[in-house]
Amino acid sequence: MLIGVPKEIKNHEYRVGLTPASVRELTSRGHQVLVQNSAGVAIGLADEAYTAAGATLCGSAAEVFAQADMIVKVKEPQPAECAMLRPGQILYTYLHLAPDPEQTAALVKSGAVCIAYETITGPGGGLPLLAPMSEVAGRMSIQAGAAHLEKSKGGLGLLLGGVPGVAPAHVAIIGAGVVGTNAMQIAVGMGAKVTVLDTNVDRLRQLDLVYGNRITTLYSNGQSIEESVLDADLVIGGVLIPGAAAPKLVTRSMIGGMRAGTVVVDVAIDQGGCFETSHATTHAEPTFVVDGVVHYCVANMPGAVARTSTFALNNATIRHAVALANKGWRRALKDDPHLKAGLNVCEGHVTYAAVARALSHDYVPADSLLDGA
Predict the structure, then answer these.
(1) Can you tell me the distance from the alpha carbon of 342 to that of 129, in angstroms, rounded to the nearest whole number?
(2) SS (H, E, C) 216-236
(3) Catalytic residue positions, numbered
(4) C-beta separation of 373 from 331 below 8 A
(5) Which of 274, 148, 289 is nearest to 220 (CA)?
């Protein structure tokens, strides 16, 4: 199979779909890899490293899309990229379709086979291809939140951990999954006062056993969320319903009741955000203000630490990339139900129920499209 790796074109996105080591995994199995010039240069992955791993370089994304049987990316295809996809071509990347009707319509129109990292499941449960970026984003959320609490960036002028004689900032984390747990680890390490909210009491119990009185755990409901965010200096939104739009847990009225200079970081923004006032921002202009509250809603947070993120992502994605290349998409999905869970759009149909429901598309089960393998 010929696998193509275009350079990412989303604002301030420097990650790359395959590292040289991942290219070597594919070329050593007899596959060809076509990499756009300078695809990884911004994060220290020189073109020479790709050619040494067996890749062929080309000058434009158009060449990559025109020749490749499978496109491996990081972020969802932009409109110009969607227009270059063709029927039967495999697209293997993050998609986050539920809050994005335009992209979904473009992918349906393309006839491509679109496999989303974020809905591929794991044998032990969870979302193993989403997890590494959730780890990065969770840790970054505290880093970004702490920076924007500085007065020069619109915040209250608080040091997250305080100093002797001065109370630390209060961080409320909504969601105790991968994002929330990683955010909590950094917030605790920086000396903040931390409250974690979730509906999974077993998960809260686990965190309490590890962190004890260094955190406060609360069952998440409308009242506990409201009380926590109104008291907090920094609020992290880290909720996730796999493949579906994020629930709006923090309402506009709650935002209106928060202190001016409070910071909210919506890590769920890829799925539409869990704050009612959220809309996606970029690394170039990461924040906006509503009722005096600073909103950080960057849709590709891990892109800011692109080298770390690229290697972490490739650790998780390469196994399925090899399977798709070795077997073709039909046989690979038939053989692996976890990979099949990643199929979101296929040959003009929406094949992920939560996306179809969110965007009012007809849902076509993936199994109905796998005959003929």
Answers:
(1) 10
(2) EEEECCHHHHHHHHHHCCEEE
(3) 96, 270
(4) yes
(5) 274
Q: How far apart are CA 94 and CA 102, in angstroms?
A: 15
DSSP 194-220: EEEEES-HHHHHHHHHHHGGGEEEEE-
Q: Position 61: which residue type?
A: A
Q: For residue 373, name the pLDDT band (cuts at 50, 70, 90).
A: very low
In angstroms, the Cα distances linking 245 to 119, 288, 295, 357 are 13, 22, 19, 10
Minimal CA–CA distance to 198: which of 180, 176, 223, 215?
176
Tokens of 177: 């999954």
Torsion (CA) 131, 137, 139, 145 in degrees, nearest 10:
-160
Task: Please compute the mean of the pLDDT values over residues 64-70 and round it to a whole number.
Answer: 98
CA distance 177 to 180: 5
pLDDT at site 372: 54
152-157 average pLDDT score: 97
C-alpha to C-alpha distance for 193 and 216, rounded to whole angstroms: 8
191: number of Cβ within 10 Å: 15
Q: What pLDDT was estimated at residue 11?
A: 84
Helices (H), the chain: 20-27, 47-52, 61-67, 79-82, 101-110, 131-148, 178-189, 201-211, 222-231, 252-257, 306-327, 329-335, 337-340, 353-359
Q: What is the dihedral of CA 121, 136, 306, 281, to 10 degrees?
A: 90
- Scan for tokens 């009185």, then name that residue: 213
The rounded mean pLDDT for the chain is 96
State the average pLDDT over residues 104-121.
Answer: 98
Q: Write down the H helix ranges in 222-305.
A: 222-231, 252-257
Global pTM value: 0.89
Closest CA to 238 of 354, 96, 135, 311: 135
CA–CA distance, 239 with 39 (Å, rounded to integer): 32
Q: Are 226 and 254 in contact (CB under 8 A)?
A: yes
**C-beta of residue 164 within 8 angstroms of C-beta of residue 212:** no
**Mean pLDDT throughout 339-346?**
98
